[in-house]
Fold each of these.
Amino acid sequence: MGLISFTKTSRHKRFNYEPRYYDPVAEELKQRTEAIKQEIEAARAYSKGTGNFSSAARISRGFARAKSQRKKTSFLQIFLIVVLGTFCVAYLKYGNMALLILVFAVPVYFFARKFNVFESE
């Protein structure tokens, strides 16, 4: 006996099997021809000076980018350690005046960072 239901009931899942022919020799030949075509296109693009270069060139650019990020990170860590150390010494020497300067300097720093004042092109 079916009652009116406000929820959607799930339907049975159907299994569709479509058999296909697989030839490993033809598959390997197709992969090899695609690889050769890509190498030829890469060689043409390299000779013209445009387009994608080999995967080795892309990988080396990725490592260079990661290395520059590490340099920026290490510089930022050293900068923060120096700033915090200087603040601690200034707080011990000048007291609450150093805290007041820090309260005004932090928003100025974030404002300048938002508008890329410290970035060089």
Note: The chain has three helices and no strands.
Amino acid sequence: MDIQDKGFSDLGLTKHTVGSPSLCCYARNLDQASANNPILVLIQGYPQTSYMWRLTVPLLPPSAPLFIPDLPGYGQSEPLQKHDKLTVGLAILSGLKTLTKSSSTTPIVLIGHDRGGRVSHRLAVSKSDVSNLGFDLLATSVIDIVPTKVQWAAFADPRSSVIYWHWPFLAKPFAPEIINTIGGSKYIFQQGLRSIAGQGSKSATNLASGDAMKVYGAAFDNPSVVQASCADYEAASNVDIEMQDADQAAGKKIEVPFMVLHGSQYIAKTFDVKKVWGEWIMDEKSLSVHCAAEGIGHFVPEEAPEETVQVIGDWLKALKIW
């Protein structure tokens, strides 16, 4: 974790530990947030830590306020009692509220990859809960995901179930015991990275840059991280699905501008991404979808940081947020 701390410090971010259970996060320029310069909340996915944003941060405008947490239970953040995406998302925003120390409404944009994308999706639907914490959610971007309910339904296709084999395995209550008993945590995270990463040399180089594998491997040496990450997937198999079922039945959908950035492999070859997400948006005109360059796999912000920042930056400018 020293590598992660130093890496973010070198990029001009300050480390904070807030809340109980404690949330580890890195931030800058929070006091400079405005409607035209909102706080970008960058939320990582599995099997990583917040360090996955190390290549995108230097490409963002120096004036951009940033809040980059380790997901609860991942990295250096302590686990929660519950890991459904609403509880996790509100815990992250509560940590941010502690740091902003503002009595006025704070504008934010959520940008989440993988599990962080699922947290961001949940908060975009539950915008009233976000508002109650004192935030104005201006827009949301998710990276390389489809809605959780849609992803589970795709397991009817054997090809999809082979690619995403870890979903049902990690959701089983006995998964942490198996993983820790056989010392398989590093194997699982390494195979998870390799199996859905892009196959090009640039993708591999970027993923390994900054000793990232040491950082992620050290995190998964902690049995608590294994336990929490499995609790994350278990929640995705029940509570998160139940919430999404209720949303769809009630016609409760995303009402903020929504950007989906996805890799050219895997999801792009399994789903009609724009059509899928269109069913979860109140107004399809607020939906933007971008497929990354050929050869880019699941880990888009690390594999293609320049394209990630360019696409999201252009989107925010078109919304007149930047």
Note: The chain has one domain: 2-318.
Amino acid sequence: MRELLADALEVFDRHSGWIIWNLFLAFIPLVLSFWLFRRRSISRTWFWWIIYVIFIAFLPNAPYLLTDIIHLIRATRAGYSVWIITLIFIPLHLFAILSGLEAYVVSLINQNHYLRKEGAKQYIFLSEIMTHLLCAIGVFMGRFRRFNSWDLVTQPDVVLSKTLDDLTTKKPLLVIFITFIAITISYTLMKQVTFGLMLQFRRLYLGLDELDPEEIIKR
């Protein structure tokens, strides 16, 4: 048992130490989305726009956790006990990845709620696509160029030049496109799961039946 626990700690330190930090970064835009889009009275002041820019800058951290599947692959090939991999490592990583994706989904649901509230329902799909694209670029810059969200402030010139270089090069463009497709598909699937869970909750605990997704968002 002592050896098993020692292996578990080694696995976490070597392959899972990123989880707490990455989840923290992923939940920053989630928290900001409630302040930006879910308050009863929202005025788009200069302060609101500053928070919105911060929201956009940190939002790629949520779908970024999808790429952390590489840590799962590396650990399964590292020769650890099957019990460690099955009972600790896989559940832990899946939890982190799904939590990051759910934070992304709820953030965009809140944004969609705001657009609907402002009478801009027709722009919801376009805003989702543009957000997926921006996040795909952000994920690529974070995973392969190792930039952080705050680098937009600390070294904006470097981030801009590197981004422009990658957007005009075939291989980075291909990776960004694949990432965009992965984010779009994952978001679409998880969004339906989220709506289903919300609907089930309202039926069981609030006694509300036959609500469509738009009504779920409004309430």
Note: The chain has a mean pLDDT of 84.
